[in-house]
Design a protein that fits this description.
By secondary structure, this protein is mainly alpha-helical. The protein has helices at residues 12-35, 43-49, 63-74, 78-94, 98-122, 144-161, 167-190, 196-224; strands spanning 51-52, 55-59. Keywords: Membrane, Transmembrane, Transmembrane helix. This is Phosphatase PAP2 family protein.
Length: 225
């Protein structure tokens, strides 16, 4: 199958491009509003809805849900992100997919640098509305967990898809990693360490970065061929 039709559905490419551009514009809008000192009306209600009324130190739901959120948030943390990223890189190198492995490294390192840059530029305070259920020590926007996990896990998923031809397998891979990214982002809000808009912005920028890595890989392949 030719590289340009590898996704199997011709109209999927423009749809993917539209989605990426929309995500970028949304991320820029959120960042722009925060730079101007504006906020978002949905942030406070969502955070409060996730805590027991009158007991803001207690999250809603069963006790095990809090531990599950802590476990999920760890999957977007520095240690596991680099561990899984390195594992994906090693696997692709083993398969002879060195270019794909290099793009995963670029996704991980690049998104980390961009996240740090945006945090320093915007310097949004962490939510003080509810007690934090996880340790944090830097600025709030964007959520590094949401952004870096989106960039790295989605790039990993897309590069792994390049090793398979069965559409069902590729869909399953992307769906699994997409769900993982969503759960990681949601865990940050549930634990009270990020405003929902932090996570939304992180998802936007991370997804765009993953799309850029995938597009760059495809473009490089076409030039080589």
């Amino acid at each position: 199958m030719a590289p340009g039709t590898r996704l199997g559905v011709p109209w999927l490419w423009p749809l993917a491009a539209l989605f990426a551009v929309s995500a970028l514009l949304l991320g820029i809008h959120i960042a722009g509003e925060l730079i101007e000192g504006e906020g978002f009306g949905f942030d406070i209600p969502i955070l409060l809805a996730l805590r027991v009324p009158g007991h803001l130190d207690t999250p809603v739901g069963p006790v095990w849900l809090t531990q599950s959120a802590i476990d999920l948030t760890a999957l977007g943390g520095f240690t596991l992100m680099w561990l899984f990223g390195a594992s994906g890189i090693a696997f692709l190198v083993y398969l002879g997919r060195r270019a794909e492995a290099a793009w995963i490294a670029a996704a991980l390192i690049g998104s980390s640098l961009i996240s740090t840059l945006l945090k320093g530029l915007i310097s949004r305070p962490r939510p003080a509305l509810v007690p934090h259920l996880a340790w944090v020590d830097n600025a709030s926007f964007p959520s590094g967990h949401a952004m870096i996990s989106a960039a790295t896990y989605l790039t990993l998923a897309l590069m792994l898809c390049e090793t398979y031809t069965a559409r069902g397998v590729r869909v399953a891979i992307v769906a699994f990693f997409s769900l993982l990214v969503v759960l990681i982002g949601c865990s940050r809000v549930y634990l009270g360490v990020h405003w929902p808009s932090d996570v939304l912005g992180g998802w936007c920028f991370g997804t765009v970065w993953a799309a850029a890595m995938f597009a760059a890989n495809r473009a490089l392949k076409r030039r080589i061929v």
